[in-house]
Amino acid sequence: MTEPIRAETFRREDWYGEDLADREYVDCEFFDVDLTEAVSRQVSFTNCTFGNVRFNASRHVDSAFLRCTFRRCNFFEAEFTGCKLVGSVFDQSDLRPLTVLGGDWSFVGLPRADLRGITIRGVRMREADLTGANLTDAVLADADLSGAVFRGTQLTRCDLRGSDLSALDPTAVERTGAIITAEQAVVLAQALGFDLTG
């Protein structure tokens, strides 16, 4: 890792297809930066702000976006593999279609996010805020969702198989056609107060 880049502001820069390996940014701001088809490997962003940044078709592997804010950013066909986004917040960003494989997205803020059809597999999402998010036809499988907030979340036809649903109140979400396993059905039945001992 090179020396950290601290408290710098990047505006209207063209980083199309850039290889961002082994860089570290702390308290930086990125506005109107084009990261289309860029690749980050073991890159760290801490307390950074991204505004109107294009992440279209970008690929991120083993990178970290810790306590970052993404405002009006575009993630069309972006992929995150083994990345940490702990404490980051997405605001008015276009997140479709998006693929997330593994990594830690605990405490991530995705309130009212349009997540229809996205794929999230094997991700740690403890205490993530999914209030009012739309996960219709999405895959949210094998995820640690303990303590996550699902108030008003749309889970229509969402594939939730293998995920921790202990924090999910079935009465507080739209769940028509949601896909779960028999074991998860037991957890949800218990959450509704059913006695399954018989």
From TrEMBL:
Show the InterPro entries listed in the entry: 5peptide_repeat, Pentapeptide-BTB/POZ_domain
**Entry-linked SUPFAM superfamilies:** Pentapeptide repeat-like (SSF141571)
Coiled coil ranges (UniProt) are none
Q: Where are the transmembrane segments?
A: none
Q: Which Pfam families match?
A: Pentapeptide
UniProt cross-references to PANTHER family, sorted A to Z: BTB_POZ DOMAIN-CONTAINING PROTEIN KCTD9 (PTHR14136:SF17)
What this protein is called in its record is: Pentapeptide repeat-containing protein
Native organism: Plantactinospora sonchi
